Amino acid sequence: MAEYTQVHRLVLQSFMREFAFDADELCAEVQKVGDRAGEPLQIEPQALDSFVGVIRNKLSEANIGLEIRKQPLRDLDGKVYYVLVNVRDDEISKAAGSEFKDHERTLFKEILEHLANSDRGDMVMSEAKRLINGNDLTRGKFPNLALEDFLRRLTKRKWLRAHETEQGRYTGGPRTLVELQSTLRDLGAAQDQNTGLFVLRTTFYKNGGNVALLNDHADEGDDDAAYDDSSAEEDPAPNRRRSRQQQQPQNEDDEDEDEDEDDEDYGGGGGKRARGPRGSGTGKRRRRTSA
Predict the structure, then answer these.
(1) Domain ranges of the chain
(2) Positions of the region Disordered (predicted)?
(3) How far from each other are the two terminal CA atoms of the chain, in whole angstroms?
(4) Which helix (H) or strand (E) is 241 found in, with range?
(5) At a CB cut-off of 8 Å and minimum separation 6, what does 171 contact?
(6) Where are the beta strands (DSSP E) in the chain?
(7) From 3.30.1510.10, 3.50.50.60, 1.10.10.10, 1.10.287.1490, which CATH number describes the 93-260 domain?
(8) What is the pTM of this model?
(9) Rounded distance between C-alpha atoms, residue 38 and residue 164, angstroms
(10) Which tens digit of pLDDT belongs to each residue from 177-198?
(11) Quick check: 142 and 153 in contact, CB under 8 A?
């Protein structure tokens, strides 16, 4: 096994600060800290596993409850990520730690639940405000600037990823997608049939042809339908998943359409079925609305 050097130590410090790198970013970081330490090191992505393995062994010896995981994120940008994860605390506690207040931790879990069950795998500001107003523990505690600051902190610490071109739209960041796999499972996220990972149904994921899900609970026909912010503001339910469960058909035509759009439960692939927060594994219904 290669020796644990000053460069390894500095890269571990970088992980403590940045939490996650894609393969290209990590190569650049290794070269940067190597130059700073006076130990120039050129490294290619295919050599990262060996380099990171030395750091992993050091963390294991230290027994501090941290490890570096490697995972391709097909629902984020398709890149391979290396993420520093906490393997000891419960999921939400390690996500929030001491930096977030109780009402912020509550909102973060509401955001995760929304992302796990969203047909788009993302969240806009109007939906975040609806989540706040739908929970007694968060209602009235997030004026606009406080909400924006909270989402900015989640993004900086890589729990969320801000949309590159559309301001105010967010999806799960690399830490959420790697470190919070069991939380995504428990909140009802879809499971990829090929990898067994619990994923968000982002546009990137669907456009990449990655739609072989074990528990696809979205309506096939509405995957790419435009989202209407005004309709979201009028919906008082805490999140779209619960509002869809509460909706009833208003006429016979709507009822027929709902029956046609019932999702099929996938049982193949040998992966585990994702569990909803109340143990439900069934699909969800939605009425189509005009744009």
Answers:
(1) 6-64, 93-260
(2) 215-291
(3) 60
(4) helix 240-246
(5) 76, 115, 121, 122, 123, 160, 161, 163, 200, 202
(6) 20-22, 66-72, 80-86, 122-124, 160-162, 169-172, 190-191, 198-199
(7) 1.10.10.10
(8) 0.71
(9) 36
(10) 999 999 999 999 999 988 999 9
(11) no
The DSSP call for residue 69 is E
Pick from 202, 229, 236, 94: nearest CA to 157: 94
Q: Residue 185 carries which side chain, given as an amino acid letter?
A: R
The percent of the chain in helix, strand and coil, each rounded to the nearest 5, is 45, 10, 45
**φ/ψ of residue 123, rounded to 5:** -145, 135
CB atoms inside a 10 Å sphere around CB 89: 12
pLDDT, tens only, 116-136: 999 999 999 999 999 999 999
162 bridge partner residues:
170
Write the DSSP symbol of residue 214.
S
Give the Cα separation of 9 and 15 in Å (integer): 10
Q: Nearest-5° angle of CA 57, CA 63, CA 65?
A: 100
Tokens read off for 264: 């099929």
Residues 6+ away with beta carbon under 8 Å from 202: 75, 76, 120, 121, 122, 171
